[in-house]
UniProtKB/TrEMBL annotation:
<protein>
    <submittedName>
        <fullName>Predicted protein</fullName>
    </submittedName>
</protein>
<feature type="region of interest" description="Disordered">
    <location>
        <begin position="81"/>
        <end position="103"/>
    </location>
</feature>
<feature type="compositionally biased region" description="Acidic residues">
    <location>
        <begin position="88"/>
        <end position="103"/>
    </location>
</feature>
Length: 103
């Protein structure tokens, strides 16, 4: 696997050694760090060796970009992510109300 491009969000666009480009971005946590023992210079025409043009790579890079970055994330609806205490945010009262309703 060859890293072709790193996106703004930190994910990677990769291709195989035969030049086929994976059209799904790969999360940075899935990439195993590799320390090269020597530098490998790629040819100037590297983009012709892979099965995607620069425009296609741009399109892959821009897929999945949120149009509404401030949208609510319902997976984290009741999770306190900002580090404030539950007493300050009022979340504790909501949790107590929910537990009373379930009982």
């Amino acid at each position: 696997t060859i890293l072709v491009r790193r996106t703004k969000g930190g994910s990677y666009i990769v291709c195989e050694l035969d030049g086929s480009v994976n059209h799904n971005k790969i999360g940075a946590f899935r990439v195993i760090p590799y320390f090269a023992r020597e530098r490998i210079d790629l040819p100037e025409h590297f983009s012709t060796l892979i099965d995607a043009s620069n425009e296609e790579l741009d399109e892959i890079e821009n897929t999945g970009v949120e149009e509404r970055p401030n949208a609510r994330d319902y997976y984290f609806e009741g999770v306190n992510l900002d580090g404030s205490s539950a007493d300050e945010s009022g979340d504790l009262e909501e949790i107590e109300d929910l537990s009373e309703e379930e009982a």
